[in-house]
Write a structure and sequence with these properties.
By secondary structure, this protein is of the alpha/beta class. The chain has 3 domains: about 70 residues, no CATH class; about 200 residues, Rossmann fold, CATH 3.40.50.450; about 55 residues, Winged helix-like DNA-binding domain superfamily/Winged helix DNA-binding domain (Arc Repressor Mutant, subunit A), CATH 1.10.10. The protein contains 16 helices and 12 strands. A 9-stranded mixed beta sheet has the order 1-2-6-5-4-3-7-8-9, sandwiched between helices. The chain has a 3-stranded antiparallel beta sheet with strand order 10-12-11. Helix 2 crosses helix 16 and helix 14 packs across helix 16. The longest helix is centred in the middle third of the chain and has 16 residues. The radius of gyration is 21 Å and the shape is globular.
Amino acid sequence: MTLNVSAQRAGIALTERQRIAWLRLIRSDNVGPATFRDLVNHFGTAEAALEALPDLSRRGGSERTLRIATVADAERELDAAHRFGAVFVGIGEPDYPPALREIDGAPPLIAMKGNVRAATRPSLGIVGSRNASVSGAKFAAMIARDAGAAGYVITSGLARGIDTAAHRASLRTGTIAALAGGLDQPYPPENIGLLQEITSGEGLAISEMPFGWEPRARDFPRRNRLIAGVSLGVTIVEAANRSGSLITARYAGDFGRLVFAVPGSPLDPRCHGTNDLLKQGATVTTSSADVLEALAPLTRDDLLTRLDIKEPTIENTRAAPAAAPDDSERNRIIEALGPTPVEIDDIIRHTALSASQVHLVLVELDLAGQLCRHGANLVSLLPKE
């Protein structure tokens, strides 16, 4: 059965002024996706949050001046995107991937090049070994073709091996390449031609990193998180122990997405990771039907509709932000923190303070470089240098 892929596109487009302010905020020092959202929720708009950054950083204990991206910085990046044929899409806009909106700390802005409608269609992630076997690459291509024919966009990371096989097999039906660096810095170089095929056809390239950003080793887990966030499920084909594909699988599990693993020979190191995933409860995958049958209940119209954001934009119209906590309240929050990750909801219960007060102090600490966010709503204090 072929999936009906007419995704509902909810949301309202950002104004150019809002887009510049959003880009400035997310490109400023120590502002990640979670801090971005807390700032906008508290101050109402990105512009108001930008004005508050220096004072917040000082209250968090920073002794240095926080670097805040300027209007000129944002305009230069927007111009670079325009020249490259790309756009920035905000989390409240119609073309933002619906499933990605649902994850904790979703990127507020995603750079996209290609067929942006591909971002709103149900997606299956396929990842695996860079030094894939012939049979592994063939199996990944089969899954990609069959899922594409059923209406799914195939999302992968443009890497050698399994990723390349999945992208190539879904060029006609639609594929999304998630990049670890800026859209203008694809990796590996030998797949630049493949990326051009993707973005000039039915596919799309996406990244949360700035234009000109060359990918480093620590950027690839963020790329893997993007793959898992965009997808309703992720299929792992050939993954060694400590493989980046296992990071993608872990993120998928954290996000409540389906994880499919293809069993392999115990004698092949490329299969050790996938075999371990099966022991941990991943879905045994020996045919395309295993994947499509499991995904089918997730792609009913009512469930897809539920993935659409209900608010027109992340920015709200609150007249004034809630009152900041006083020194004693701030100290109570800081004392509740330590080197061990704790849930933010537990901090709120422990301190008996409002959620807005707790989140504001966490933002202050984050901007001052004293907080570590672990995902799943967990935070801890960074050790003093």
